[in-house]
Request: fold
Amino acid sequence: MKKRILTCLLGGLISVCVCLAGSQVIFEFPKFEWSKISVTVAIRLLLGFVVSINSWKIKHHLGGSLLGMILSLTVSVGFLPDETLKFIL
Reply:
């Protein structure tokens, strides 16, 4: 179990690098903002931890995808512009 947790956390760190590099390329290399970096690191490590302790009896790829979608959607609401957020709520 310990090996699984460490492997998934390492996968989370790798996905942090991929996400930050992708955002740099897509948004034409803006300045790094520590608030966005810290949120990205926290969410990807949380996702890695949740996947590692996951005990769903479904296929691994499907379970990881569902968990990723659920965790990412819960955090992405905080990044919505105020006008959109007021409309939704």
